[in-house]
Amino acid sequence: MKAWRNVLVCLLLIAASLVSSGCASIVSKSTYPVLIESEPAGAMVKVENKQGEILHTGTTPLTVTLKAGAGFWKGQDYSVTFSKPGYNTRVADIHRGLDGWYLGGNFFFGGLIGYLIVDPATGAMWTLRDLKVTLTPVGDRSSGESPAVKVVTLDQVPEHLRPSMVRIN
């Protein structure tokens, strides 16, 4: 009889711990190692949070540890600036997403306390993904840069192009 009571007490303690905690807080995490890569490699990187604080600098490829949460019910996003000589500077964002364990796990294990208190407070309701960008060479038209405007006089325009010119008054 005493053995059944011990088993029952253990089961009740396990059930209480599952109900009183968030599933994402148990199974997932609130900080993530984020791999930051560039093509080509060797770009200088600056990682900032949305408040403008520089959190990490380095050269690609690199792994940085970032917090997914920024306070109760708030996720954290990051801005990453890539620069490399001969390539256009590029800024890309790391956006947080909802953790699958927060969405599905609390339905089965964490309950309302997990959904409304524990996981939002710990930041475990959020997740972060790796980032890889492709840098474009300076002057590459596919980079979205506008071509430079060049002003010339009429005598500098080749003879065969002059008939296609339009006079603007």
Tell me, briefly, the overall form: elongated
Strand portion:
25-35%
Total domains: 1
Taking pLDDT < 50 over at least 5 consecutive residues as the criterion, the unreliable ranges are: 17-27
Describe the structure.
The chain is of the alpha+beta class and 169 residues long. The protein has one domain: Immunoglobulin-like (Sandwich), CATH 2.60.40. 27% of the residues lie in helices and 27% in strands. It has three helices and nine strands, in the order ααβββββββαββ. A four-stranded antiparallel sheet has the order 3-2-5-6, with no helix packed on it. A three-stranded mixed sheet has the order 4-1-9, with no helix packed on it. Strands 7-8 form a two-stranded antiparallel ribbon. A hairpin with a 6-residue loop joins strand 5 (78-83) and strand 6. It is elongated, with a radius of gyration of 27 Å. Residues 17-27 have low confidence and may be disordered.
Summarize the structure.
This protein has 169 residues and is of the alpha+beta class.
Keywords:
3-stranded mixed sheet; alpha+beta; 27% strand; Immunoglobulin-like; 4-stranded antiparallel sheet; 169 residues
Task: Set down the secondary structure blueprint.
Elements (H helix, E strand, L loop, with lengths): L1 H18 L3 H5 L3 E9 L4 E6 L4 E6 L2 E6 L10 E6 L6 E5 L2 E2 L1 H23 L3 E2 L3 E4 L35
Parallel strand pairs: 1-9
Antiparallel strand pairs: 1-4, 2-3, 2-5, 5-6, 7-8
